[in-house]
Model the fold of this input.
Amino acid sequence: MTDWREPGGSVLRRLPDSRAKQFWDSNHLVAAQLAKDARPPQPQPGCCTRDGILWDLAAVYPPGAVWGEAMPPAVLFDGAVVNMEADIEAAVRKLQR
Done:
């Protein structure tokens, strides 16, 4: 019930890492593309679909991943974001090895 408008500065400051990007996707364009381009080896999300639209999802991409005609497979693709802090940190640490 809190995602009906663009998040303010206090919400955006929760992700202070410059590598993190947060999208306000009011027309669900990014969500639709993420769903369309999902494919192995990207994991299937255990949540985050509402009325057929991806919602409140965290995705971690490997270094050098390029979003082109099709989005690259993510190494982490799940949510809800509020519950994903440890998983995001673990995925980033694993990619840094």
